[in-house]
Specification:
The protein has 4 helices and 4 strands; from the N terminus they run βαβααββα. With 123 residues, it is α+β, with helices and mostly antiparallel strands. α1 packs across α3.
Length: 123
């Protein structure tokens, strides 16, 4: 299913998506971290984002016009937006492929308390 949307108008149910696939989009976003932070509410807990971007290569259209984003920048922006790094793949010869996952909405202290509580039941 394809849905036409703008950054401010996305007609999707909250926590309704398993996967968001963004191919050659990241480098066009003026504030990618902000965009994906807003998009996160539409992902289910544990939902994933797959981002494919051009690799910078020599004297080419992609390099000359900035139609690429290095994986390190994608990961940095996405972690700031509340995603965890998943996997990276290199099977596409002129593209990067980065998968990320929506972070657990519990704060670190809440997760720690929950872990301690479960741990105390085991002993």
């Amino acid at each position: 299913m394809f849905i036409l949307a703008t950054e401010d108008q996305i007609a999707l149910p909250e926590a309704g998506l398993d996967l968001v696939f963004a191919r050659n989009v990241f480098h066009h976003l003026p504030e990618p971290g902000k965009f994906f932070a807003k998009l996160k509410r539409y992902l289910k807990i544990g939902g994933r984002v797959a981002i494919i971007e051009h690799k910078k290569k020599g004297f080419s259209f992609v390099s000359l016009f900035g139609h690429h984003t290095v994986p390190e920048e994608i990961v940095r922006e996405m972690e700031r937006a509340g995603y965890m790094t998943g996997a990276s793949f290199d099977f596409l010869p002129d593209r990067t492929f980065t998968c990320l996952q929506r972070n657990n909405p519990l704060s670190l202290s809440q997760r720690f308390k929950k872990t301690v509580w479960v741990h105390s039941l085991l002993f």
